Predict the structure.
Amino acid sequence: MKPHLPMKQSMIALSVLSVLSAISVTSLPAMAQASKEQQAETETEKLETIQVTGRSLSYANSTISSEMKKQQTPMTSALSIIDNLPGVLVNEGDPFGSDEWSTSISMRGFQLDLASQQIGMTVDGISNGNSNYGGGTKASRYIDTENLRSVEVSQGTADISSRSNEALGGTLDFTTIRPRLDEKLTVSTTLGQYNARKFYTRYDTGEIAKDTFAWVSISTQQNDDYMGGSITNSRDHAEGKIISRVGEVDLTGYLSYDDAEEYTYQRIYGLGQYAQEPNWDGLTNNFSGVPYQDQAFRETWGTERENLFGYLQADFMVNDVEVSSNVYYHKNEGMGKWMPYYMADVTDDGAGNPHSELNSSTTASGGSSLGSIYFVNRDGQSLSPNEGCVSSIGYPYGGGGAEIDPGCYEQGAMPVSSNRHSNYNKERFGVNADFIWNTTIAGMANTVRGGFWYEDYQRDENRTWHKTIDAATSPRYENTPYWTQYSREFPVETLMYYVEDEIDAGFAKFRLGAKQFNVDVSKDDQFSPTNDLNVSSDSDALISAGFVAPLPMRGLEIFGGYAENFAAIKDGVLERDDTDVSQIEPETADNIDLGLRYSTPGFNASITYYNIKFENRITFVSNESVNGIDFLEAAAGGYINDGGVESDGIEASLDYSLTDNLGIYVSYTKNDSTYTDEAFLGNTVLGSAQDMAVVSFDYTKGDFYAGFSSKYVGERFLDQANTQETDAYIVSDLYVGKTAYEFGGAIESMELSFTINNVFDKNYLGTIAPNAGWIGAPRTAALNLKFVM
């Protein structure tokens, strides 16, 4: 990666020293060392101690329970497990989460989807590197579901130390399991509908050296699309973690590799199209040999993603100060595929001459399309349709003119088309450091926290157009592109630093802090430097404050929080050459939480009122519409500030043990998110549900467990004008399982579990995009068998 900003070299040196100094310390005071049992506690033991109602903090937060994990299969994306938490809505078009194109997370009117990245996401507290579709990486790419220890959702005000510049509406922190104390081998097999299967193995090493434990896992999985079974999604994953105590320093190392090939589902344009056939997204399963129709051939809507991520962390004490520091590295490579129904004419070969684009030995670089090539003769010359011919092709996108219809050409005309590849490559290097100093002021316990996050990354992107070898017979394409439409680099440097003080006055704890972001984003056009762009996306000092106070009733507390949140301008905003970055401002949000929590053995409850003022909302204007895809991106498309949003609402949850064996979990969300800009003043934010509710019953008796959960999602609008409203829907999940022990020999336990998601096969629209939506995943059953040896 190229050095590109003056801060870089000094920050790299600081990051290396922060970890090396931790390892080399020999005279630090001894830190209270946790027992080996605590260091190696298992995933289940940890989850059983977590209350969904959240920790005693001055802002709303909630954490998944072990029952929520059981509601999903081991094949399912790690994102889906948080769907039952209050205020959270997760939609995935694929039953197993094998399609980021149709994936969205909504929380308090904030969105994480194709159009927006307004919710922060971290892995073991480390930035995930943005969540956008083109070059971003969600937590589900880093973590195998079996290796997921917990997910903590911090709504609204969130933790001041959150490592994300997307956290307008809160942060999702996905954490990985710790190594076991003893040596174990876990083998798991999952089989499901739609040719779904996953094979997973994890080896826990036990103590491989003094105070050193580790685990390593590998898995492979695949599933077909549920609409026709014409394509197969696949994913290969490897992951490992090691913990060790060297002197007075606790070290943690983590490494994850993920290689996925996935195919996308298409969005439905409007309620009319959805009503026609609520079980079909409009993509076809068979190759027709007619390029205009084959632009909707499912096999050509593909995505490839490869991620390598790792970190090294050191935790130690300096006198009375707890210090935690880590360095991390992430490399991402990917490709998005489409199949335009023409070849772009990018070289002026002269009237009547063969098109050089048909010659696979040449590649044009940059420039713009002079026109489109649809049909040619054997000499490679363009042909024109017969005069007066009217096309009979009406699908997709309502059809086209005579130029796209093979019936409008003389016999012998040869169709041509392209395969368009958007190629991504990104490298990130970062360092985090935090300190906690516990002291007293006037006899009151006082805690000072502080730290910083520095990240340097560069995303490279280019777009290549490849000739389809024979557009009449298959989508196979030539390896050498005939045109590289663009090539550009996006250097981005982020520095966030914060400080916070919390004092315990006895009757309440009060905290006050501030943080600031300095973010520099650039675009370096490799073909035309005149298209270079640069924008500084620095925040003001962002204030964070709150309190937690116990009330006279034992187990009851009141809390409140305020935070000024910030989302920097993303590199994706600079992609279009015609972008006027001077007209785009970073997004900001002022969040207020006020709530009550009650916690006693067997009964936990919380209720939170929130109010949010969200300004400078950045929205993506898509180049795809009901009229078709703008493959050349010649039409208006890109990111704009789309006014503001005001949200207020209530989030409530209750977790109650009805008996020793039966528990009930209930959550309810009432959300009112409306636009504040003049064009849509008072209208409900598209895609946001005003009402959501969850009821879940979970039963355990000995080694047997079962559960049934239902989620209600209220009506949502497809458009900002609020002219199209989706129906409300209820989706239910069922799980049942049994664990058997004492087999003798090498097998310690065997667990068999059966899961059905969307039990009643409800038809509904899931992810919402402007004037469109994706069909929700259908009923899906899966069986898992796990051995521990």
Q: What stands out?
A: The two ends are 44 Å apart (CA to CA). The first strand starts at residue 61 and ends at 63. The helical segments are 7-24, 36-39, 43-48, 66-70, 139-142, 270-276, 291-294.
